[in-house]
Structure formats: C-alpha cells, structure tokens
Amino acid sequence: MPMKTESRTRGLRALALFADFLLVILAYYQIKPASRSLYLEHFSAAQLPYVWVLSALVLGALMPAYAKLVSRVSRPRLVVGTCLGFALLLLVFRLWIGGPVAAVCFYVFVDILSVALVEQFWSLTNAAFPTRQGRRWFGAIGAGGLVGGMTGGWLAQALLTQAGLSTVDLLFVSAALIVLVAAFSAVLVRSGVLAEQPGASALPGLPERPALRDWLGNRYLLTITAVLLLAQVVEPIVEYQFMHYVQHEFPERETRTAYLSGFLSLLNAVALGVNLVVTPLVLRALGAIGGLLAQPLTLGLFSFLYLLQPGLNSGAAMKISDRGLSYSLNRAAKELLYVPVAPDLIFKLKAWIDMFGYRAFKVLGASAILLLTEWTHWLVAPAAYSYFTIPAALLWIALVLSLARPYRALTAQEAQNRER
C-alpha cells in the first residue's frame, strides 16, 4: 500500500510538472516565431551568426549577477521573480519594437528568456525525483513542453491568420502566459510538489563551495560540457541551413511567421511522439547514456541526406532530426545526468553549463558561419556545412560513451545514500 501511495504521489507530481512545463513553452512559442520573423524583416539569414554572438556576450555579462542571485535567493523565489521580470520586459518590447535595432535586441531577449525559464524549470524538477523515478517520469514531464510547443505554434498561427493579430501582438499573449507560469510555480512550491528528494550528493573531487578551477578539473563536468559544446556548435549550422531556404521561399513577413509557427508545431508533434513512445522504452532499457546517443546518430544521417539534396524540405527534416530529439529523448536523458547531484550544485551547474554554456558554445558555430560565408565566401552553398556536422556527430557519440563509467558511479552512490 505504501508503494502504491508513493507511486500515485509521483504520478501527480509528474502531472503537475507536465502542466507547468506546458505553460512555459506555450508562452515561449508565442514569441519565438515572432522574433525570427521580425529579424528577417530587416536582415538576412546569413547575418544570424552576429546575433548569436551578441546573445552569448549579453548572457555572459549577466551571468555573474545571476550567479550571486542563485547563491543568495531561494530557488523557488528566483524562478517566480524571473518570470515576472520577463513578463514586464515583454511589455516594454511591445511598445518599443519596430526598427532593426529593436528587432536584434528582441531576438537576443527571446534567446535569453527561453534558456533561463527552461533550465530553471528543470533544475527544480531534477531535485524532485531520484534517478530511478526520473527514468520513468522525465519523458512524460518533457512531453508537457512538447505539447506546449505544438499548441503554442498552432495558437500563434491562428491568432495571426484568424484572429487578426499582428506579429508584435504576440508579445502581449506571451507576457500573460508567463505571469500564469509564475503563479502556478508558486503554487507547486507551496504544495510541496517541488520538494527536494534525499540521496543526491556533491560530485567527487568538488569542495563544498567549488571555485572555477574545481569545476574545470572535474572530468564528469568537463565531459558533459564537451557534449554540450558539440551540440551547440552544430545547432546554429543546422539553423542557418534551414533558415536560408525559409527566407528564400517566404519573403513576406506574415506568411513567413505563419510558416515558422506551423513548422514549429510540426517539430513539436514529432518530438511529442518520440517522447511518448520511444523515450520511456530507451531510458528504461539503456538509461541516460543510450538516450544521449540518439540525437547525434540521427543528425549525422539527415545531414548526409541534406548534403545529397539541399532544399527547404530536406532542411526541415534535418532541423526536426536535431531539435526534435533535443526537445524529447535527449532532453530527458541529459537531465538524468544531473539527478544524482546535490540540488544546490544543480542550480549552479545548469546556470553555467546549460545557460551560459548553451549560448557561449553556439558562438563557435556562428563564428564558423561568419568566417566561411560572410568574411571569406569560401562556402556559399549551405549544404557544404554538412561536411562539418557529420564528423561532429561522430565525435559527439564518442564523448557520450565516455560518460558511461562516471555516471554509473554517481547513480550507485545515490542509491547507497537513499538506503541509509
């Protein structure tokens, strides 16, 4: 009976977090297509790497202040405060948006909003589940974000094509949804849904308050960082290859925004199917390491197909193979890497690796595009970049395999701590 009660409690917790993540991504998908479309109104897809570099620089400048907040403010309060701050800034952008400078600033803002809200959500979620339960429930929780992305794309498209709203009006919709996220998150904290679970521990070799040199000297963290590095180097290249044909096929703003909204819904529908059917099976049978191998394997395959026949459809397929698995199986598997780690370390880890590192590493891919396309014109055809993504996928696979031994050691230590 106690086991049934515990299972029911875990299920209710997963359902609540499913709904919370759905709201987060629903809000984000009102402004993601808007930010891309507003940018393309003033600039070309070939200039996107400049914005990605700027995004990393801005986030890097903000990280010291954010790190201090993580140390001084309770984690639930920080999440609620971040949501309310983003909602207020969306209202400011709605009044300001219009010219090229505003379009660039808004693109950077949306980039920072997405990574901050998503990583804060998963930081709290990681601490609320032990590894064994995380394998069972993280796929279902992650499906909330996929449903949010799918319905968010449809909602944005419907508001534009049927309700008569303009692209910039989507900022109001997103702000209202983010306020709802803040209220719902506060309820989850007060009800105990996000209570931290026992058993996690500090990473071997790290002192209680690690300095930068301690982080850099930890093999487990370095390998996770290297995996993230490759994923984020490849992601802007895939984005560039896809957006090149979006700009070519849809020169008119509202049509372009509608296409991007519909495409993002399709991407999330595919990812949702993977999360509901494939993710639970893979994580239970092969664990986190098996789940992490899926994205580089499929990305390498579809990059090869894009190389053979470049175009909007093959670019969309490659984009779905990359982001679709990133949002589903890879996301759930990646979060399992953090579960055996103490909650206070999780928040600090994800702040630097998954927030700052996410954008900083993307700069490498963006810089490669600038060097080879804008500055030297060595690579004019977007398909030629597949010669970089395919070897990167192979190295990615090798790094994931090297995580297996230290991850097993951490999960074994977690199990021992829970039995004490």
Topology, pairings included?
Elements: H1 2-42, H2 48-72, H3 75-96, H4 100-127, H5 131-161, H6 170-190, H7 212-216, H8 219-249, H9 253-308, H10 312-326, H11 329-336, H12 343-375, H13 386-402, H14 404-419
Helix pairs in contact: 1-4, 1-5, 1-6, 1-9, 2-4, 2-12, 3-4, 3-6, 4-12, 5-9, 5-11, 8-10, 8-12, 8-13, 9-10, 9-11, 9-13
CATH homologous superfamily (4th level) name = MFS general substrate transporter like domains
Number of domains: 1
CATH architecture: Up-down Bundle
Number of strands: 0
Oligomer: single chain
How would you portray this structure in words?
It is a single chain. With 420 residues, the chain is mostly helical. The protein has a single domain (2-194, 212-415), classed as Up-down Bundle (Growth Hormone, Chain: A). Helix content is 83%, strand content 0%. The chain has 14 helices and no strands. The protein starts with a helix and ends with a helix. The mean pLDDT is 81.
Can you summarize this structure?
With 420 residues, the protein is mostly helical. Helix content is 83%, strand content 0%.
Output the keywords.
single chain, 420 residues, Growth Hormone, Chain: A, 14 helices, 83% helix
